[in-house]
Structures are given as C-alpha cells and as structure tokens.
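Protocol step 4 of 6: record predicted structures for both targets in the notebook before any analysis. Target 1:
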Amino acid sequence: MTMRHGLSRFNIVSLSLGLAFLYLPIAILIIYSFNASRLVSVWGGWSLRWYAALFNDSPLVEAAWLSLRIAFVSASIATVLGTLAAIALVRSGYFRGRTGFAALIYAPIVMPEVITGLALLLLFVAIDLGRGFWTVTIAHTTVTMCFAALIVQSRLVSFDRSVEEAAVDLGCPPIRTFFVITLPLIWPAIAAAWILAFTLSLDDFVLASFAGSGVTTLPIRIYSDVRLGVKPEINAICTLMILFVAVALVAFSWLTRRREA
C-alpha cells in the first residue's frame, strides 16, 4: 500500500482551520486598528486617527518604550549567559555538579511563572533591593536565559569540531579560534536565541507584576486599560509591535540566507 503524495482535502481543511485559529484574531486586531469609530466592535470606515492619538497617549507610549528597553537589555544578557552555559554543558564534558548545574539552567522552563515571580520577589525583599527597571530585567533574564541556552546547546551538539581542530593545528589560539571559527558558525543560533528572549521578555506580564513596583510595562498597561474597556489606541500599539517583530524576523531571515550564500 503506497501513500499518496501531497495534501488531502482533510489535511488542507485542518491546516486552514489551524492557521485561522492562530492568525485570524491578529488580522482582526490589525484591521480594527484602522477603524474610524471609537467603538472597537463597530466598523466606521478606514482611518489613521488612532495612530495619531496613540502618540498623544503618553502613558501607553512610555510603557511601550520601557518594555522595549527591558526586553533589549534582558535578551542581550540572557543570550550571553545562555551561550556560556551551553558551551559549558557541551564542551566541558562531565564535571562534579554538572547535573545540578543543568537542572538550575533549565528549571525556569518547567517552573510556573507565578512561583518564579514570587521567589524573586522574596529575594528582592530579603536583600532590600528596590524594585524597578533592573529587578524586572533580572527576572526576565532568569527565565529567558534557559531558552537561549537550549537553542545554542542544540547547535553546539551538532557542531563539526574538526574545523576548530584544524585551526588549532595551524597555530590559532583557542580563544581566537572561538571568535574567528566557532562564533560565526553558531551565530544564527545565537541570533535566534536573542530574538526568542526578546519576544518572551516583551510579552511577559506575571514576572513584571512581581518584580516591578511602580514599573508599568506594556502588558501591565494594556491589562489595566482593558479592564475599563478596550481603547482603539491599544489596537494601534499592538499593530505596531506586531509590525516591529515581523520586520525583525524578516531581517533576520534575510541576513541568515545572505550569510549562507
């Protein structure tokens, strides 16, 4: 019995329903960000009025700018620490405490964010550290570092070390070998880890609620506004964030293909 090549009608319908479930709400949000009506559930024609009103909504703009700064800093730190952790797990072989070290690295993946946020809150209170920008950054770094380490580790496991060995045999020092040979070859994985860490930090709500006191990130601001009713400006800011992430992904894909070519 041979399998038929191509997609069957059932597979096409299933795929269409799955894509519609994932992306139809996003498409509706983007369309209604151009709605001229103040009521988000009533279509009043096409307009850019809410994008103009968005830049006059200083609390929402400041929350978005704060979230971008926290996401950039935490993603950068998490990517560096995650890369170092992945190198230690893959290249160092067996060492005492390796199992515990790996467990500590990957624990935030399976740990509920409520527990992680509460633990960090108790830590910050115990050491009398004022909660603000840096405490939220530390909380986001703690969680996103494990995802960065997992992505980089998966690339290092399949890495062909003969290239490094050839460079060392030709007299290249180990540190220079890493920066000249290893780092450019694993750079796509590092970039992917940074993008994932950035997205997770930008989207986080629970950790920011526990770790930040008086720090209002974009998810917290949107949640506070939505409780009183959805404002059209929220659709506009969400559309701009979606556009920002989409442009970043396209640019990353283009740079990766150009590098491979």
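Target 2:
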Amino acid sequence: MASLLFRAAAISSPFSISAKAYTLGRLARRTLSPIRSMASSAADERFQKVQIQRDDTVFDAYVVGKENAPGIVVLQEWWGVDFEVKNHALKISQMGPGYRALIPDLYRGKVGLDVAEAQHLMEGLDWPGAIKDIHASVKWLKANGSPKVGVTGFCMGGALSIASGVLVPEIDAVVAFYGTPSSELADPSKSKAPVQAHFGELDSFVGFSDITAAKALQEKLNSSGVPFEVHIYPGLSHAFMNTSPEGVQRRKTMGSKDEDYAAVDLAWSCFESWMSKHLRSA
C-alpha cells in the first residue's frame, strides 16, 4: 500500500505559496525581462491543439497519443508549456499500449525563458484557477474517449498534481515529481486518488520538494486511506527528470550538475507501473 524510500528526514510543514515563490526567487540572476510567448517548433507538430471550456474561460491545451486510451494530464514546471513538458508528454503517450496525454496551458501562452521570468509567472498564477483548468482537462479527456484519467506534473505541476488528487474527484491516479501543495491549497491527507511521488534526496527547496517535504507528505498520505508511494532518489537534486540537452544545461545554470539516467529510468518505470495499475484495470 505505502512505500517511503529515504535516508534522513526531519518533519517540516510546507511553505505557503508566497513563501515558496520567495525561496525559488532567490535563484534569479538578472532583472526580469519581458515574458515571451511560446515559440512553435517541429516537435509541436506531433501535438493537436485544442481549446477547453471552463466556467467563462477558454484555454488552450496540447494533446498527443492514442485516441480512446487512458488519459493523463501532464502539468508544466514553473517555466510554462515548453520543450521539456512536451518531451515528458510525448514519452508518456508512448508507454505500454499507449496513453492520451494532454498538457493544459496554465500560463495562457506565456513561457519563462529564465529563472526571473519563471518566478514571475508562478507568483502570478491563480492556483485555484489552475485546479479548475485541471478539472476541465480531466473532464475533456473522459468526454473524448479516455475511460480513466490520471494527472502528473513536475515542480509546480507536481504540487498541483497532488492538490488535484484532493480537489478533483474524477481523477483516477496521481504521480507527482518534486512538488507539494501549500496547506492553503490542499491537504494531502484528504486525497481521493492513489498518489505516487518522487523526490531528489539533495533537493534544496525546503518545505516544497526537499526531503522534509517528502516526509511530511508521506505522513499525510498515510492517514488518507488511499494507496500511495513516496520515492526519494539518493544524490539527486531538483528537476532530475529533465534529461534533454537543453534541460540539462538549464539545470546546470541553476547549480544542479547531478545526472543519473538509471534513476530517471527507474522513476519512469515506477510511473508506468502506477498508471497502468490504476488506469488500465477494470
């Protein structure tokens, strides 16, 4: 039912959203420049752009993969819908017999090209509104042929994934990478969906994705009554799943020089097993 793999942890309560943004913001190296819109690339041709309605708002989403397959909503890091989250969605769509992966554009076309821009975008995010986007994305997938739908995300998206498992009853499974929600947004002890979570042992974002946050999440999930796993990878820091050349270089500019492709493969294997178990079973 539950799994926690870690080396040392002291309990720490998660930061509020504003405090997390402050912690991440200390990474900024230069003055905020104008935010760019997302540029198209050859890889984008593999995605279908759709528009999803929620309340009185319409937002863009990017879909790839097998129709009528189980669906997975893939949530962005604080950068926005960029090359890396699309890399993840493409990989997910090709796992096993195939999934239909959908990326909702939570930033409405904006992408941060440096740390300061990404911080600015995350600080400005309407987090309850993002949960509504996720809810609408799940409903869109189920209305368009996906019998079951999971949610996954990275960094900011990881926190939103866990929160959506609490707040969106239609979600059938969650896999979160290095992120936990603030107590103001959601209490993981009230999760309605099975949760698997992944963290780097050396992650330095205290209270958000470090080992103390992983331990706190494990304790809350332990009282939730849902199946869960919490995995911590020795010697790895934040965003270790980003293995594209551009992603590796970006991590290095932020001070993360660790690379462990065996650990990344293990994490993807755990992801695939979890989603298959909860999205493909009757």
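Step 5 preliminary note on target 2. The two ends are 19 Å apart (CA to CA). Residues 261-279 form the longest helix (19 residues).
Proceed to step 6 after PI sign-off.
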